[in-house]
Amino acid sequence: MAYETTPSVQDVRASFQRRAGRPAKFEKAADPRKAMVRLLKYLGPFKSLLILVVGFIVLYSLLGLAGPYLMGRAIDKSIGGKDLHGLLVTALLMLAAYFLSNFFNIIANLIMARISQNALKNLRGDLFAHIQTLSMRFFDTHPAGGLMSRLTNDIDAINQTVSQNIISLIASILTMIGILASMFILNHWLALASLVVIPIMYWFSNFIAKYTRKGFRELQKDLGELNAVAEETVSGFKVIKAFRRNESAIETFRQKNNAVFKSAVYANSYAMLLMPLTGVLGSFFVIVLASLGGWLALKELVSIGMIATFINYAQNFTSPLRQLSNLYNSIQAALAGAERVFEIIDTKPETPDLPDAVPAGRFKGEVSLRNVVFGYNPERVIIRNFSLEIPAGQTIALVGPTGAGKTTITNLLTRFYDIQEGQIRIDGIDIRAIRKADLRRNLALVLQDTFLFADTILENIRFGRLDATDEECFEAARMAEADHFIRQLPRGYHTNLSERAGNLSQGQRQLLSIARAILANPSILILDEATSSVDTRTELRIQKALLRLMEGRTSIVIAHRLSTIRDADSIVVINNGEIVEQGNHEELLERRGFYHHLYMSQFKGNEI
Ligand SMILES: Nc1ncnc2c1ncn2[C@@H]1O[C@H](COP(=O)(O)OP(=O)(O)O)[C@@H](O)[C@H]1O
Ligand SMILES: [Mg+2]
């Protein structure tokens, strides 16, 4: 038989859990048709293969119809006519029909798997490549988790639909149309009786399914909350232990655990109910058809074989019918996912380089900001009329309270964001006229939280300049004062950080990022609070490494530590996006102005 009449409890549960697994997927696409058209474009290159798939599904569905018909004929002609040879022939024909039908189904699915995986590969590729082109503004406003879910959950939802649901949908519809057509061709009265009973069955099983679905949705929500509690407790165990909150963590977990228990019992009870109920309904259908058929048979209006054929058809009808509503939900979910994916693909990339942007070699490193005005959104100005000249090779310290706009200035120099008014020049050239790649090759950033990849220490250093030799990486590590600790690790430079990252101290991670910057050998260096979350033991080492890194380069240093600031050629005090004072440490202290105030409240006691 082409379809199982009664699904097993496991099937039911799996189907609901699959769909309930991602609560976000219950939402519908705002414009499903548009999402569908765009999704189909990814299948476009495989048009001829798709036609082949549809051809095989048609064969599969048609041959599925042959079985019950042949069985009915065997009962009437061969058994009724005591024709053993005919019986044998029909049996072989049935076998051939079922065999071929399923064979075609397998072929269709195999081809479809190739098509869909190819299409998905292209979609994933497009999405990932496009994400790489997006502006810093995009990443600042889209949390990483959401993007990850585009690349994993949404793509996965699309995968399900493209690789499986499309075939199921076509097969279900074809089977249902085929069965209805065959029924009416074979016998009007039995066909009409089926038409009355089928909707009742459908309605009943849908009724139960609705509660099961609701149950599993609830369960999934509770499970999500339970997982969140578990995850928080595991990743935040240090804080929990330090504040002695283990008891309350256990209590929270107990409550969520209880909720999961309750909703799991509810959902599973309904899922259990679904199977016997569908069974009973199926039998009800058989009984109605058999009784009506029997009555018609008594009046010699139908043959026994015909009744058997109908019962078989009826059983094959309900399963695709039930599948349709599942398919509808999955397809909606996939389209919603596709819409979210396309939304990212449609996001405008970072502004491209000007057509006449000049390729630039190595900068001398003279930086000049003139009357710069900038706001992340134009209504709220963050940087006001900001002018600053930094001669090549000098070190400038930017200081000011949190939120003053220090990091924003660095965002403008790297062109992560473009200024609204004024001009930024490097070596006398407006940075908008320099290709971004060239600009950024000349700049290196060392930030407060270093990002290290799940790769070896060696490769993490090499990230600073991909064509660097091993020897150059070692040299950079030596200059960054990192060589010593790296060599003490059991696998040295080949230590994989995916396994050991947790064991590197904040300071050691910082040293690695300094090595990376040394290797990159930029003409302009930006240090944004690079030493603020470092233990004092490594602090001196980092200071030494930083001084070496800053040698001979234009350096813009944002720091909490007085030591870094004091040695700067010039200190620029920023408040509210404006320069309020500028000079060296002694000059500024003498002035007893903003810097003096800041120094008293922030740096005093931080001296090392
Ligand atoms: N990506 C962003 N989008 C919108 N506003 C931002 C963004 N980054 C920073 N801001 C705002 O800009 C102001 C300056 O921030 P920032 O330059 O990070 O300050 P600082 O580094 O001096 O502490 C703050 O008011 C902050 O809220
Ligand atoms: Mg900052």
From TrEMBL:
Residues 51-333 form the ABC transmembrane type-1 domain. One of its GO terms (cellular component) is plasma membrane. GO terms for molecular function: ABC-type oligopeptide transporter activity; ATP binding; ATP hydrolysis activity. Keywords: ATP-binding, Cell membrane, Membrane, Nucleotide-binding, Transmembrane, Transmembrane helix, Transport. The keyword Nucleotide-binding applies. It is a multi-pass membrane protein. It is found in: Cell membrane. InterPro entries: AAA+_ATPase (IPR003593), ABC1_TM_dom (IPR011527), ABC1_TM_sf (IPR036640), ABC_transporter-like_ATP-bd (IPR003439), ABC_transporter-like_CS (IPR017871), P-loop_NTPase (IPR027417), Type_1_exporter (IPR039421). The chain crosses the membrane at residues 49-71, 91-112, 166-185, 191-209, 270-290. PROSITE patterns: ABC_TM1F, ABC_TRANSPORTER_1, ABC_TRANSPORTER_2. Its main location: membrane. SUPFAM superfamilies: ABC transporter transmembrane region, P-loop containing nucleoside triphosphate hydrolases. Residues 367-601 form the ABC transporter domain. This is Uncharacterized ABC transporter ATP-binding protein YfiC. It comes from uncultured spirochete. The gene is yfiC.
